[in-house]
Design goal:
By secondary structure, the chain is mainly alpha-helical. The chain has one domain (13-66). Helices cover 37% and strands 8% of the residues. The chain has three helices and two strands. Strands 1-2 form a two-stranded antiparallel ribbon. The longest helix is centred in the C-terminal third of the chain and has 10 residues, at 56-65. The model has no long low-confidence stretch (mean pLDDT 89). It comes from Pantoea coffeiphila. This is Regulator.
Amino acid sequence: MRPNITIVIPEPYLPLDEYCRRTGTNKETARNLIEYGKLPIKPKGLQKKGLIEVNMAALTIQALSECDISLQA
């Protein structure tokens, strides 16, 4: 029998400044990662100049998918 693990993502989205502060990532580096599609963000829709929010849920799923585990949502 496989154990069940529950992962809680307390903040599914983080503003870019807060993401950079928590990870120690340079803001320009983070912007480049977003531009290259390596850092997922919340779609801004019609607000092209709106707040950039990093999708922490997508990053968590990406990290888990790189492990040798089975994911069920």
